[in-house]
Amino acid sequence: MQLKVKKLYEDSKLPVKGHPGDAGMDFFTREKVVLAPGEQKRILTGVAVEIPEGYVGLIWDKSSISFNQGLTNLGGVIDSSYRGEIMVSLLNTSNKEQVIEKDHKVAQMVVQKFLDCEIVEVDSLSETIRGEGREGSTGKK
C-alpha cells in the first residue's frame, strides 16, 4: 500500500519510517514549539495525507519525547476522508518547560485497516460473565 503525502510548505518534512518494517511513521514539527508545565498545544506538521478508504491513521506518542520529556499525545484518529494538515495535540506532563525544535520528530502514525460498522439501537445487549463490571472487576490478583 502507498500513502500519498502532500507537503503544505516547501520546507516541510515528509514522514519517515525509522527502520524497514516499522509500523509507525514519524512526523516532524513545522516550527519550534515551547510547552510550559501542564500546557497543551496543537503542533503543526506541514503535511497532509491521503489515507485509503477502509483504513485509519492513528497518531501515537514518540517514546523518546514521551519518556524523556514527559510529552504525551492527546487524541489522534485521522479518517480517510480528511485531507487537511496533520496536527498533533501534545500535553506537557512534566514539571519543566519543554522545547521541541523545528523539524524534530513529534509523533508517529500507524495506518490500520478497520471494520466499518452500522450503528443499530437495541433494547438489550447479550449477557456475559463480566456484565457491567468495570475497573477492578477481575479482582486484585
How many angstroms does the end-to-end distance come to? 44 Å
CATH architecture tag: Distorted Sandwich
Mean pLDDT: 94
Kindly estimate the percentage of residues that lie in beta strands according to DSSP: 35-45%
Individual helix count: 1
Low-pLDDT runs of 5+ residues are none
Quick one: how many beta strands?
A: 10
The level of helicity is under 10%
Helices and strands, in order, run as EEEEEHEEEEE
* Oligomeric composition of the shown chains: single chain
CATH topology: Deoxyuridine 5'-Triphosphate Nucleotidohydrolase, Chain A
The CATH H-level superfamily is Deoxyuridine triphosphatase (dUTPase)
**What is the CATH class designation?**
Mainly Beta
Adjacency order of strands in the biggest sheet: 1-4-8-6
Compute the number of structural domains: 1
Task: Describe what is shown at a glance.
The chain is mainly β and 141 residues long. Helices cover 5% and strands 38% of the residues. It has one helix spanning 63-69, and strands at 4-7, 24-28, 33-35, 40-50, 55-60, 71-73, 77-78, 85-92, 98-100, 105-113.
What topology does this entry show?
Layout: E1 4-7, E2 24-28, E3 33-35, E4 40-50, E5 55-60, H1 63-69, E6 71-73, E7 77-78, E8 85-92, E9 98-100, E10 105-113
Antiparallel strand pairs: 1-4, 2-10, 3-9, 4-8, 5-7, 5-10, 6-8
